[in-house]
Design a protein that fits this description.
The protein is an alpha/beta fold. It contains 14 helices and ten strands.
């Protein structure tokens, strides 16, 4: 046994979780959620001034319902996490490493090899699998093959305090066991990413680890099968031999894998500080060379043990804060993620609709005046003829006012159909006195025909002018009232978007403080 292996196995027996007071942290997150629910539930978007059956009002009503519906949905999602957490509690006193990689990456081979090494040093190695939501002991080690052989999540407990979780890839767990398996994997404290040297650094694999990598878990890239076939002369014959890749070749692949992983993590918005240096190894070469100290070192296992020791501390630190991390994951992914994926886009869509609607109101204002004008002006001759026998200018004005009000309310209701349009209320409808049409209101029998014609024409013009002036005021008042309704609604949307952004910043700050080891109350 080489020195690094001895140190690692000895240290793994001491892996543990020191007590950390997470109660203030959990209370802070619970307070954050309660405050957010209160804000969402008590700040309905104000759609006063909109007709309740209008498209815009229905859109607002749907948003108000969505803001209130989150609490129940999030509670269900939190409850769904509990079976996996209960399942993982069986390993509360152990550090759990997720061994991840596509098929033929050597996951099972590595797990089996490490189990054998532990047993050789007098430590236990207990295999298990997840079956129908239960942890079941396995009577034999993991099956190894050139094709995918793992249908369920399986694992091995090495010694007293270390667990390796071997997965078939998150994409291929059985459907019945899949959801629970994925949630069970959330309990892992660090990730070993295995990638074969035949096609190293296939970073699209990391997409399947997106949730894990965003949770502040260390990621160790391991280039497996780091060996190659070479020709050699033995007893005068040319034979093919499997040998470790050269250190230079390994170094090139390791740098390439790390650089690819860094680029990928950046595109995934994952903190690259959790990415560890890559290393290469060959389980096959260590095994076929008798597992001697030199064979183990040449195959890359000294570096593996050193790297495992290096991630032990951050993995243990993650495990210490895991209860808070689980709650934080729920708040980030189910609560805030839900809002950012559904509510925020809906609010932003509503803002665009509101802005477009406000732009359209100006043209509608002019159209209302134009439509009513065209409807009322042809009626002036009839009104004047109706009142000509009595020559009653006031009565004529009253009729024209009534006609214009009816026409205005009809046209405004049509062009502003999504709004509550108030009855026409505007300036007093009157025509100026002394404009040459007084003859229509006198009883002089000496009034000539010329005076009557002049009076008729002047009164018609005065009435037309008065109608237009009043329509301009009425239309402006109605459109301004609609604009005020849109403005109030827009301000409500802006406040809600601002609130969500504020709560997102608070949660981000809580995450930073949690992972920074600060145990103070995380009240935001």
């Amino acid at each position: 046994m080489n020195a690094w292996e001895q140190r690692f196995i000895a240290a793994s027996s001491a892996f543990g979780v020191e007590a950390r007071d997470l109660q203030p942290v959990l209370e802070g997150m619970a307070s954050w959620l309660a405050d957010l629910v209160q804000v969402l539930g008590s700040n309905d978007l104000d759609h006063a001034g909109l007709r309740p059956d209008s498209t815009l009002a229905r859109q607002v009503q749907a948003l108000n319902r969505e803001m209130k519906s989150g609490e129940a949905r999030w509670a269900v999602q939190w409850a769904e996490l509990q079976p996996a957490q209960s399942l993982a509690s069986a390993f509360d006193d152990k550090v759990m490493l997720l061994v991840f990689g596509k098929f033929n990456a050597g996951k099972s081979s590595l797990c089996n090899f490490l189990a054998e090494r532990f047993r050789r040093q007098g430590h236990s190695a207990r295999f298990f699998r997840l079956d129908a939501g239960q942890i079941v002991d396995a009577v034999q080690c993991f099956h190894e093959g050139a094709t995918e052989t793992t249908a369920h999540l399986q694992g091995v407990c090495l010694g007293e305090r270390l667990v390796l979780l071997d997965t078939p890839g998150l994409h291929s767990v059985t459907e019945d066991n899949g959801d629970l398996t994925r949630r069970f994997l959330d309990s892992a404290d660090a990730v070993l990413w295995l990638t074969s040297s035949t096609s190293p650094g296939q970073v699209q694999e990391l997409d399947e680890l997106g949730r894990e990598l965003r949770r502040g878990k260390p990621l160790l890239p391991i280039v497996t099968r780091s060996d190659c076939i070479e020709e050699d002369e033995i007893d005068g014959k040319i034979v093919k031999c499997l040998r470790n890749k050269t250190q230079a070749n390994r170094a090139l692949q390791e740098v390439d894998v790390r650089e690819r992983a860094l680029d990928k993590l950046r595109t995934m918005n994952v903190d690259t500080a959790w990415l560890k240096a890559s290393l290469s190894l060959s389980v096959h070469m260590a095994s076929t060379q008798g597992q001697t100290a030199d064979a183990m070192a040449d195959a890359g296992f000294e570096r593996l043990y050193a790297a495992l020791l290096d991630i032990a501390e951050p993995a243990s630190a993650y495990k210490q804060r895991k209860p808070a991390e689980v709650m934080m994951h729920h708040l980030q992914e189910h609560v805030l993620g839900d809002l950012q994926s559904n509510l925020v886009p809906a609010l932003e869509d509503l803002r665009q609709v509101l802005h477009a609607e406000r732009d359209a109101l100006e043209s509608r204002e002019a159209r209302i005046v134009q439509r009513v004008w065209r409807e009322v002006i042809p009626e002036l001759q009839r009104v004047l003829e109706q009142h000509a026998p009595h020559r009653d200018v006031q009565a004529a004005c009253a009729d024209v006012e009534r006609l214009s009000n009816i026409a205005f309310e009809r046209q405004a209701s049509e062009l502003l159909c999504g709004y509550v349009v108030a009855p026409a209320v505007g300036p007093v409808f009157e025509v100026p006195a002394g404009a040459g049409y007084e003859v229509l209101s006198t009883h002089s029998v000496d009034a000539g025909m010329h005076d009557l014609v002049v009076g008729y024409v002047n009164l018609h013009a005065a009435l037309a002018h008065a109608v237009h002036e009043r329509l301009v005021v009425l239309s402006a008042n109605a459109v301004n009232a609609c604009g005020d309704a849109l403005h109030r609604l827009d301000r409500g949307v802006e406040r809600m978007l601002g609130s969500i952004s504020t709560y997102a910043c608070q949660l981000s700050d809580m995450t930073r403080r949690l992972r920074g080891g600060d145990d103070v109350r995380l009240s935001g």
